[in-house]
Amino acid sequence: MKILKIKDVVMVALLTALYFIIYNIAGMLAMVFGAFGHAISPGICGLFCGIIMYFVSRKVGKFLQFTLMQAIIILLFTIMGAGYIPWVITSIVAAVIADIIASREANPPVWKLGVASGVFHVGQALGSIIPAMFFMESYKEDWIARGQTAEQMDAWVEAASGALGVIAIVVVFVLAFAGIYVGYALLKNHFAKKELQAA
Amino acid sequence: MKSIKINPIVIILINVIAPTMYIFMSGKYLQIYLFTFAAALFVLMGRFKRLAGYLIVYGVMMGIYYITLNIKGIQFIGLFIIVIIQSVPCIALASILISKYNSAQLLSALETMRVPRVLVVAVTITLKYIPTFRREFSYITESMRLRGIGFTWKKPIKSFQYFIIPQLFRCAALAEEVTAAGLVKGIDAPMRRTSYYEEKATFADVAVFALFLTGLAGGFVWKLM
Question: What are the sequence ranges of the domains in chain A?
Fold first, then answer.
């Protein structure tokens, strides 16, 4: 198991900048789908950013690469005043699991990367789903205090809890999984030559 | 009026503390307070252009919020915007971190906060790269224009491919250059890094932070009333 060197850290940092921009655009696109869109926005991000995760895996391919990506995203959002403790915890735990799944080997199979990306983005989604499921009242009060209406919060909680919450988790996982295959399809020609040379 | 210089740590601390306060105090009070505090800080730092931009963005977003909130069917837009509005003062302050301070100043500030070195280096690089993204994108569109290729919604996957793949390989090339520059400056040296910009807290830093905390304390009083 290889560990990250300074060159890898720089590469991950630059690619995370691109991920961060797409993450924000995906969040705005998710707005179109209302409360449910908010719950599945990490999946929409995963669909578009699968190519970045695939690229990171093929170019860096070292343990803790996804944890570093997630930690940078969390720090950026915190500096921007958008840090949220449940989201931080679930995101980091999921990123470590994603690394255990797909970063212990240099060239993991695409399906493993798909699972890792799914877990990575489900972790982000759980940041809002877990509070809505288990701490419903304080979650609602917190957001109503921030300017949401009680009706909208009811819709949010409904979209992120119960059966809809489970559906949201599945949708996020599937979209993120598909994102890796989109990345693979777009990049396979670029890496085919390199893989042939390595063989 | 002479503008003041603030240690980036103060801005980072304000942005870390401010959003967590929504759990403890009135959201309305905090929104108004953060908006006013950020505007006052822009004035004190002499960032009048940025202040104008901040006021326009905030005003437009509030306008959209109030208009869409009263129209059935598109209320979700306003309710989404109000989530973003509460981050606008912090985002505006974070934008100063990118525009006013160089990488060495940010590195020094983040290292003072005992954040692991790897993370400090990574976050500094990411923060400085985000603003260059627009320029990188314009290079890609220019190259595409010269080759007679255009973005089209009719072929979304192809268009996405044209946009993302050059960016990815540009990042890979840039990583080599940035790493080389960093290694020359001893970024991987195991000892504690010293910096020309290593600054101790000044009176202005303490005063600004104390003012921020006093305003937050006012929020608790507001909640009790």
Answer: 6-198
- Transcribe B45-83 into DSSP letters: TT-HHHHHHHHHHHHHHHHHHHHHHTSTT-HHHHHHHHH
Asked if A148's CB is within 8 angstroms of B82's CB, the reply is yes
SS3 B121: helix
| A10 touches B: beta carbon within 8 Å | yes
pTM: 0.82
ipTM for this prediction: 0.83
A12 in contact with B at a CB cutoff of 8 Å?
yes
Quote the crossing angle between the two packed helices A65-79 and B8-20, to the nearest 10°. 90
A147 SS3 class? coil
Largest separation between any pair of C-alpha atoms in chain A: 60
Please state the domain extents for chain B.
Answer: 1-102+199-225, 116-196
- What is the per-residue DSSP string for B15-49? HHHHHHGGGTS-HHHHHHHHHHHHHHHHHHTT-HH
Dump pLDDT digits (tens) for A65-111: 999 999 999 888 887 777 777 888 899 999 999 999 998 887 899 99
* Two tokens, residue B47: 């960032």
Give the residue-averaged pLDDT of A48-62: 92
